[in-house]
Protein backbone atom coordinates (compact mmCIF):
# COMPACT_ATOMS: atom_id res chain seq x y z
CA UNK A 1 0.00 0.00 0.00
CA UNK A 2 1.32 3.45 -0.87
CA UNK A 3 0.83 6.24 1.63
CA UNK A 4 2.37 9.41 3.00
CA UNK A 5 3.52 8.89 6.57
CA UNK A 6 2.90 11.37 9.36
CA UNK A 7 6.70 11.66 9.63
CA UNK A 8 6.94 12.67 5.98
CA UNK A 9 3.94 14.99 6.26
CA UNK A 10 5.67 16.84 9.07
CA UNK A 11 8.66 17.61 6.83
CA UNK A 12 7.18 18.52 3.46
CA UNK A 13 6.08 22.02 4.47
CA UNK A 14 9.64 23.22 5.03
CA UNK A 15 12.08 24.36 2.36
CA UNK A 16 15.87 24.85 2.39
CA UNK A 17 17.44 28.28 1.85
CA UNK A 18 18.70 27.11 -1.56
CA UNK A 19 18.02 23.89 -3.42
CA UNK A 20 19.18 22.99 -6.92
CA UNK A 21 20.39 20.20 -9.13
CA UNK A 22 24.13 20.33 -9.79
CA UNK A 23 25.59 19.17 -13.10
CA UNK A 24 29.23 18.12 -13.00
CA UNK A 25 31.68 15.96 -14.90
CA UNK A 26 34.00 13.12 -13.94
CA UNK A 27 36.50 11.95 -16.57
CA UNK A 28 34.37 13.49 -19.31
CA UNK A 29 31.12 11.86 -18.15
CA UNK A 30 28.09 13.88 -17.04
CA UNK A 31 26.67 13.51 -13.54
CA UNK A 32 23.83 15.23 -11.68
CA UNK A 33 23.84 15.75 -7.93
CA UNK A 34 21.64 17.84 -5.68
CA UNK A 35 22.58 20.67 -3.33
CA UNK A 36 20.40 21.84 -0.40
CA UNK A 37 21.73 24.73 1.64
CA UNK A 38 20.89 25.62 5.24
CA UNK A 39 20.41 29.17 6.49
CA UNK A 40 23.12 28.95 9.15
CA UNK A 41 24.83 25.60 8.55
CA UNK A 42 26.07 23.56 11.48
CA UNK A 43 27.91 21.19 9.16
CA UNK A 44 27.76 19.33 5.88
CA UNK A 45 26.15 15.98 5.04
CA UNK A 46 27.14 14.00 1.95
CA UNK A 47 24.36 11.63 0.86
CA UNK A 48 24.86 8.52 -1.27
CA UNK A 49 21.88 7.10 -3.14
CA UNK A 50 20.38 3.62 -3.34
CA UNK A 51 20.82 1.34 -6.37
CA UNK A 52 18.09 3.15 -8.31
CA UNK A 53 20.33 6.21 -8.66
CA UNK A 54 20.01 9.85 -7.67
CA UNK A 55 16.24 10.45 -7.39
CA UNK A 56 13.71 12.69 -5.70
CA UNK A 57 14.09 10.56 -2.58
CA UNK A 58 17.65 11.82 -2.06
CA UNK A 59 16.54 15.34 -2.89
CA UNK A 60 13.87 15.10 -0.21
CA UNK A 61 16.29 13.81 2.40
CA UNK A 62 18.74 16.59 1.52
CA UNK A 63 15.96 19.16 1.93
CA UNK A 64 15.11 17.68 5.34
CA UNK A 65 18.74 18.02 6.41
CA UNK A 66 18.90 21.63 5.21
CA UNK A 67 15.84 22.44 7.28
CA UNK A 68 17.61 20.88 10.28
CA UNK A 69 20.52 23.26 9.75
CA UNK A 70 22.93 21.15 7.69
CA UNK A 71 24.15 21.77 4.19
CA UNK A 72 23.57 18.61 2.16
CA UNK A 73 24.86 17.31 -1.14
CA UNK A 74 23.46 14.15 -2.73
CA UNK A 75 26.12 12.89 -5.10
CA UNK A 76 25.60 10.82 -8.24
CA UNK A 77 27.43 7.47 -8.42
CA UNK A 78 26.10 6.37 -11.83
CA UNK A 79 26.07 9.29 -14.25
CA UNK A 80 23.40 10.65 -16.56
CA UNK A 81 23.77 7.93 -19.20
CA UNK A 82 23.40 4.92 -16.87
CA UNK A 83 19.93 3.35 -17.05
CA UNK A 84 18.29 2.40 -13.74
CA UNK A 85 14.72 1.60 -14.77
CA UNK A 86 14.87 -2.17 -14.32
CA UNK A 87 16.33 -4.57 -11.78
CA UNK A 88 18.85 -5.74 -14.39
CA UNK A 89 19.92 -2.14 -15.01
CA UNK A 90 20.46 -1.59 -11.30
CA UNK A 91 22.39 -4.82 -10.85
CA UNK A 92 24.63 -3.81 -13.75
CA UNK A 93 25.20 -0.29 -12.42
CA UNK A 94 26.04 -1.38 -8.89
CA UNK A 95 27.94 -4.46 -10.01
CA UNK A 96 30.24 -2.38 -12.20
CA UNK A 97 31.24 -0.27 -9.21
CA UNK A 98 31.60 -3.21 -6.85
CA UNK A 99 34.05 -4.66 -9.38
CA UNK A 100 35.92 -1.36 -9.79
CA UNK A 101 36.62 0.06 -6.35
CA UNK A 102 39.06 2.62 -7.74
CA UNK A 103 36.27 4.15 -9.82
CA UNK A 104 33.91 4.00 -6.84
CA UNK A 105 36.38 5.99 -4.78
CA UNK A 106 37.00 8.46 -7.60
CA UNK A 107 33.26 9.16 -7.82
CA UNK A 108 33.06 9.65 -4.06
CA UNK A 109 35.96 12.09 -4.26
CA UNK A 110 34.22 14.00 -7.07
CA UNK A 111 31.08 14.27 -4.94
CA UNK A 112 33.09 15.57 -1.99
CA UNK A 113 34.64 18.21 -4.23
CA UNK A 114 31.22 19.41 -5.37
CA UNK A 115 29.93 19.52 -1.79
CA UNK A 116 32.87 21.32 -0.21
CA UNK A 117 33.04 23.82 -3.08
CA UNK A 118 29.54 24.99 -2.16
CA UNK A 119 29.59 24.68 1.61
CA UNK A 120 30.67 27.39 4.00
CA UNK A 121 31.56 24.62 6.44
CA UNK A 122 33.54 21.53 5.48
CA UNK A 123 33.02 19.54 8.69
CA UNK A 124 31.18 16.58 7.20
CA UNK A 125 29.25 13.39 7.89
CA UNK A 126 28.65 10.86 5.09
CA UNK A 127 25.42 8.83 4.96
CA UNK A 128 24.14 6.27 2.49
CA UNK A 129 21.08 4.16 1.75
CA UNK A 130 21.34 0.45 0.74
CA UNK A 131 23.96 0.48 -2.06
CA UNK A 132 24.85 3.95 -0.81
CA UNK A 133 25.59 2.45 2.59
CA UNK A 134 28.16 0.15 1.02
CA UNK A 135 29.69 3.18 -0.74
CA UNK A 136 29.74 5.05 2.57
CA UNK A 137 31.70 2.26 4.24
CA UNK A 138 34.03 2.10 1.23
CA UNK A 139 34.95 5.71 1.94
CA UNK A 140 35.31 4.99 5.66
CA UNK A 141 37.90 2.29 4.88
CA UNK A 142 39.77 4.44 2.37
CA UNK A 143 42.48 7.06 2.63
CA UNK A 144 39.63 9.62 2.51
CA UNK A 145 38.27 8.41 5.85
CA UNK A 146 39.43 11.41 7.89
CA UNK A 147 37.73 13.79 5.46
CA UNK A 148 34.54 13.09 7.41
CA UNK A 149 33.73 13.24 11.10
CA UNK A 150 31.48 10.18 10.91
CA UNK A 151 29.68 7.69 8.70
CA UNK A 152 26.09 6.40 8.80
CA UNK A 153 24.24 3.75 6.83
CA UNK A 154 20.52 3.09 6.50
CA UNK A 155 19.82 -0.56 5.59
CA UNK A 156 23.19 -0.45 3.86
CA UNK A 157 25.57 -3.08 2.58
CA UNK A 158 28.03 -4.12 5.30
CA UNK A 159 30.44 -6.53 3.65
CA UNK A 160 34.16 -5.84 3.51
CA UNK A 161 35.56 -6.76 0.07
CA UNK A 162 38.64 -8.91 -0.37
CA UNK A 163 41.81 -6.92 0.07
CA UNK A 164 40.24 -4.38 2.43
CA UNK A 165 39.94 -4.21 6.22
CA UNK A 166 39.19 -1.91 9.11
CA UNK A 167 42.21 -0.45 10.90
CA UNK A 168 40.38 0.88 13.97
CA UNK A 169 41.32 4.52 13.43
CA UNK A 170 38.27 5.41 11.33
CA UNK A 171 35.79 8.06 12.51
CA UNK A 172 32.68 6.69 14.27
CA UNK A 173 30.29 4.56 12.23
CA UNK A 174 26.51 4.33 12.81
CA UNK A 175 24.62 1.35 11.38
CA UNK A 176 20.81 1.62 11.17
CA UNK A 177 19.42 -1.76 10.24
CA UNK A 178 16.10 -3.58 9.88
CA UNK A 179 15.77 -6.78 11.87
CA UNK A 180 13.65 -8.34 9.10
CA UNK A 181 16.09 -7.43 6.32
CA UNK A 182 16.63 -10.52 4.14
CA UNK A 183 18.99 -8.76 1.71
CA UNK A 184 21.51 -7.76 4.38
CA UNK A 185 21.00 -10.24 7.19
CA UNK A 186 21.63 -10.17 10.90
CA UNK A 187 24.55 -12.51 10.20
CA UNK A 188 26.03 -9.74 8.06
CA UNK A 189 25.51 -7.32 10.96
CA UNK A 190 27.26 -9.71 13.34
CA UNK A 191 30.20 -10.14 10.95
CA UNK A 192 30.56 -6.37 10.65
CA UNK A 193 30.55 -6.03 14.45
CA UNK A 194 33.17 -8.77 14.78
CA UNK A 195 35.42 -7.04 12.27
CA UNK A 196 35.07 -3.71 14.02
CA UNK A 197 35.73 -5.24 17.42
CA UNK A 198 38.83 -6.98 16.12
CA UNK A 199 40.10 -3.69 14.67
CA UNK A 200 39.17 -1.63 17.73
CA UNK A 201 36.89 0.67 15.74
CA UNK A 202 34.16 2.93 17.11
CA UNK A 203 30.69 1.93 15.96
CA UNK A 204 27.04 1.82 16.98
CA UNK A 205 24.43 -0.55 15.59
CA UNK A 206 20.69 0.02 15.94
CA UNK A 207 18.30 -2.74 14.86
CA UNK A 208 14.59 -2.09 14.30
CA UNK A 209 12.32 -5.08 14.81
CA UNK A 210 10.15 -6.25 11.89
CA UNK A 211 11.72 -3.63 9.60
CA UNK A 212 12.54 -5.03 6.13
CA UNK A 213 15.22 -3.93 3.72
CA UNK A 214 14.65 -0.34 2.47
CA UNK A 215 12.42 0.47 5.44
CA UNK A 216 13.00 4.23 5.03
CA UNK A 217 11.71 4.55 1.46
CA UNK A 218 8.61 6.74 1.62
CA UNK A 219 5.54 5.33 -0.10
CA UNK A 220 6.98 1.89 -0.77
CA UNK A 221 5.53 -1.41 0.39
CA UNK A 222 8.59 -1.85 2.59
CA UNK A 223 8.27 1.47 4.37
CA UNK A 224 7.98 1.18 8.15
CA UNK A 225 7.20 4.47 9.81
CA UNK A 226 8.39 3.53 13.30
CA UNK A 227 11.78 2.34 12.07
CA UNK A 228 12.11 5.33 9.74
CA UNK A 229 11.30 7.81 12.50
CA UNK A 230 13.55 6.17 15.09
CA UNK A 231 16.46 5.74 12.70
CA UNK A 232 16.21 9.38 11.61
CA UNK A 233 16.21 10.44 15.25
CA UNK A 234 19.32 8.33 15.85
CA UNK A 235 20.94 9.89 12.79
CA UNK A 236 19.99 13.37 14.00
CA UNK A 237 21.66 12.66 17.34
CA UNK A 238 24.75 11.32 15.54
CA UNK A 239 24.97 14.51 13.47
CA UNK A 240 24.74 16.60 16.60
CA UNK A 241 27.54 14.62 18.23
CA UNK A 242 29.89 14.54 15.26
CA UNK A 243 29.26 18.05 13.90
CA UNK A 244 29.02 19.94 17.20
Q: Can you put this structure into words, describing what you see?
A:
- The chain has 244 residues and is an alpha/beta fold.
- Helix content is 36%, strand content 21%.
- The chain has 7 helices and 8 strands.
- The protein has helices at 6-9, 56-67, 87-98, 101-118, 131-140, 186-199, 225-242; strands at 18-26, 29-37, 44-48, 71-75, 124-129, 150-154, 173-178, 203-208.
- Strands 1-2-4-3-5-6-7-8 form an 8-stranded mixed β-sheet, sandwiched between helices.
- The longest helix is centred in the middle third of the chain and has 18 residues, at 101-118.
- The radius of gyration is 17 Å and the shape is globular.
- The termini are far apart.
- The model is unreliable at 1-13 (pLDDT under 50).
Key features of this structure:
8 strands, 244 residues, globular, 7 helices
How does the SSE layout of this entry go?
Elements: H1 6-9, E1 18-26, E2 29-37, E3 44-48, H2 56-67, E4 71-75, H3 87-98, H4 101-118, E5 124-129, H5 131-140, E6 150-154, E7 173-178, H6 186-199, E8 203-208, H7 225-242
Parallel strand pairs: 3-4, 3-5, 5-6, 6-7, 7-8
Antiparallel strand pairs: 1-2, 2-4
Amino acid sequence: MRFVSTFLAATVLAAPALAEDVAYEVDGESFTGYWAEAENPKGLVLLVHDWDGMTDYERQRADMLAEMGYNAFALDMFGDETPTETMDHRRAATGALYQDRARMRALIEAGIAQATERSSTDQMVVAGYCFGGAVTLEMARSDMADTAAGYATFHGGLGTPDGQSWDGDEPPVLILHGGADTSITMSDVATFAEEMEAAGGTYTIEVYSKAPHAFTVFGSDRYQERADTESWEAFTSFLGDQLS
